[in-house]
Amino acid sequence: MQTSLKDTIKLSNGVEMPWIGLGVFKVNDGDEVVQSVKAALRNGYKSIDTAAIYGNEEGVGQAIKESNIPREELFITTKLWNSDQGYESTLNAFETSLKKLDLDYLDLYLIHWPGKDQYKETWKAFEKLYKDGRVRAIGVSNFQIHHLEELISCSEIKPMVNQVEYHPHLTQIELLSFCKKEGIQLEAWSPLKQGQLLHDPVLEEIARKHNKSVAQIILRWDLQNGVVTIPKSIKEHRIIENANIFDFHLENEDMERISGLNIDSRAGSHPDTMSIGF
Asked: 54 catalytic, yes or no?
């Protein structure tokens, strides 16, 4: 059982990944992202998740530098955008991201969306980056079971992580089960459904029972399902609150009630129809 913000899950290649990180989707580059990341690092977070398309890699890099935390203690993730898919373009995009972050290596690099047909070629570049020691772990984002099966069938290295939209309205039970079977760590983006779940009566009732916020209940549910989670916030008190989920445990009945809220509803795009930039 996870007992602190320092706790990690061992990926299939032995790399330790924190259970909780700070996501910076829709956080503005410059002061906003710099202050958010610094607040997270100041309060014990070790994992920061960004992406090329977020346009804030430079701010994330600045915050890392200004925090003065030894690089090896941190876990930094970024993602390859759709328009950069393909072998050579992936290698170029990786160098651009690394330069913006002002880092020598990444801890995790993800293909942001599967798209139609280029992700196999893209993955070959990911395998090269991994073998060359430029990134400690490689994975995908928003991949469905059929994408994963196709990728695994033609690759040397299996993705170590699959980051997907995951919350009580979208429990993705089959995908979670598939990933566990294949040794792929599932990671939740938009775990609070961009705030849409914060006033759900069932979650409010469970929150009152445990004297916690609805956000804390959802994030605890993630962890107890074995899912890494990266809630986003730009407010320091929320960043602290989101990490304060290690002093209680949801009972089976709570877990089942939360999972029972599933309606297969997304805040973001469906991976099979998302094709912007391809």
From this structure: yes
